[in-house]
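User: Hello! I'm new to structural biology and keep hearing that structure can be predicted from sequence alone. Could you demonstrate with Histidine kinase? Please show me the input and the output so I can see what each looks like.

Assistant: Of course. The first part below is the input, the amino acid sequence of Histidine kinase. The second part is the output, the predicted structure written as tokens.
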Amino acid sequence: MMLKKLLQITIINQISGFILSMIIVLISSTFYRYNINIAISLIFTNSVGYIYFVIDSLFKRYLRETIEIKIFKRLSKLLLIFLSLFLGIELSLFLSRLLLPIQMFSVSEAVQNFLMITNIILIFIVVFLGFIYKKLKTDIENEMKENERLEKLNLKSELAALQSKINPHFLFNTLNTILDLVYDHPEKVEEMILNLSTIYRKILYSSENEYYTLEQEIDLVKKYLDIEKVRLGNRMEYEIICNPELKNAEIPPLCIEPIVENSIIHGISPKKGNGKVQIVIKTVDKKIKISVIDDGVGIESKDFKLGFGVRSVKERLKILYGEDAKLEIKQNEKNGVTVEI
């Protein structure tokens, strides 16, 4: 690919050199110096062409991938062209003096002044374009940092809003459970209230955190399951299986509890007979996989509903991780539902 481009540049240089020499001859009417004009023109076009080729190749190799904005690419191209012209003129003058006899390479004072002015103008253009490039790059980097800061603030506000909705939702369901027990099993109310107090104390002290450790979340889930165990008695069993190495891994707070709550409220509670909720946390393909499995009424039952808590978890995962996290709900082969994160 590189050799092909080099060959193309070489051909273009030679054609440009002959065309330039013809233009010089026609303008200056110096047909008798045609061979000198060709030599000087070829030196000039080859100098500019090869310098541009080298600079452009280095630019594409080391810098092009870091420049994504269209205006930067155009400005960079313009900067390369003027820089190549400036260096090409200097190199062609040096080579002409070096390769051509002094009597053949006689440049008038007017031409020398023209070349000097041209070089000065090119220097100013290169410096100006470099300044503009640097200024635009700094401004865009600052704007990107500000946008990133605003996105983080927006993310925090969205997470806080979602979490504030989860907490009252959980409290509402738990208070309903306590209300039922007041009439049927008043002796169990104290244990329920203590567990509820523990849960909300944890939520209160961690409400400003974007993440929980899995150990903290599991402890929260256990407290909730103990509350439901009091309400449902022998009708509900639970099991938590977690890889010990993952206990310090961080996940969004209230990420597992709403799913467990949904399994019990809409899966186990409507079921006739006993039910079980199993929580399995392990590593699959270097990612954390959290499965909440119940043997409740299942998705196809009219009693099954997808509660607000599960929807909010799905939304928060999308906000925090984008395509790097997903929540799936599956109907089990026998009965019940599996929710996987």
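User: So the tokens describe the shape?

Assistant: Right, they're a compact way of writing down the 3D structure. Reading them back into a model, for example: The mean pLDDT is 75.
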